[in-house]
Design a protein that fits this description.
One of its GO terms (molecular function) is oxidoreductase activity. Pfam families: adh_short. By secondary structure, this protein is an alpha/beta fold. The chain contains 9 helices and 7 strands; from the N terminus they run βαβαβαβαβααβααβα. Helix 3 packs parallel to helix 4. The two termini are 21 Å apart.
């Protein structure tokens, strides 16, 4: 894995999984650039990790993306890996309008689906150019295990993450159409986490636990450190040609992605498509 990643940009890296990934990649000696919405959190992270580069980016501010991406690529022309992470999760009742609003639903779709789509599009030409030149390049995009097996508590979150899952498949197909040779050097990886103990569900965890019948029946989250250890263990398991796996899932995430491939991969193979 180490030879495939030299300089990595982590988008959405000031808390939860993104922050934990930042610490691990930095400890591995990679050149790490991180983005986040909160300038103070970025400064705190930079103070802890010597040499860390930070850039402010709000995933809800779509109009700011082109200028920010252009500047990042100008500042770091050897950037070979982009990791699109971050997101928001809301819990609401479709039959009770008082539990959400149009603005909240739009914001959740914007951050979880529209933003990753646009960012991937903006970084794609740079990563493709590297691949065409013979260098390795990678883009990781985080979906979720409940993109595959949705839960009623999170109607918009599940739908948006299912969109991310589908987007990565389309992205990979297009890469094959553009350049078969470059597709050997550029990896498009869907990251499929299970339920991890982060602050993502802080506002509604008690509610969803109660809906599942209490602590004894509710699905428990896995510890963040455990997830990160297992993610990196999977990341090291390269394909025979040295590529990353198309999906990197842990626990329920690995099972979900495996079920999808077992059911649908052969359909695409019959159409001559790589997914």
């Amino acid at each position: 894995m180490s030879s495939r990643i030299g300089t990595i940009l982590l988008i959405g890296a000031t808390s939860g999984i993104g922050e934990a990934l930042t610490h691990r990649f930095h400890a591995m000696g990679k050149k790490v650039i991180v983005t986040g919405r909160d300038r103070a959190k970025l400064a705190t992270l930079a103070a802890k990790l010597n040499g860390l580069e930070t850039r402010q980016l709000d995933l809800a501010d779509l109009a700011s993306f082109p200028a920010i991406v252009t500047q990042i690529l100008k500042d770091f022309p050897t950037l070979d890996t982009v990791f699109i992470n971050g997101g928001v999760q809301k819990c609401y009742d479709l039959f009770d309008p008082a539990t959400t609003s149009a603005d909240k639903i739009i914001h959740e779709i914007t951050v979880n689906l529209t933003a990753p789509n646009l960012l991937a599009q903006l970084f794609a030409p740079h990563l493709l150019a590297l691949a065409k030149s013979g260098s390795k390049s990678n883009i990781f995009i985080t979906s979720s295990s409940i993109a595959y097996i949705p839960l009623s508590f999170y109607p918009t979150y599940c739908a948006a993450k299912a969109g991310v899952h589908t987007f990565t498949k389309c992205f990979r197909q297009q890469l094959g159409f553009v350049s078969e040779e470059a597709s050997k050097n550029m990896n498009i990886v869907e990251v499929v986490p299970p339920y991890v103990d982060t602050g993502l569900d802080h506002d509604h965890r008690e509610f969803t636990v109660a809906r599942q019948g209490g602590e004894e029946k509710a699905t428990p989250p896995i510890a963040l450190d455990d997830y990160i250890d297992r993610f990196f263990a999977s990341l090291e398991k390269l394909e025979p040609d040295g590529s990353f796996k198309k999906e990197i899932g842990v626990g329920f995430g690995e099972m979900s992605a495996g079920l999808w491939r077992g059911a649908f991969e052969t359909v695409y193979e019959q159409m001559g498509l790589t997914v």
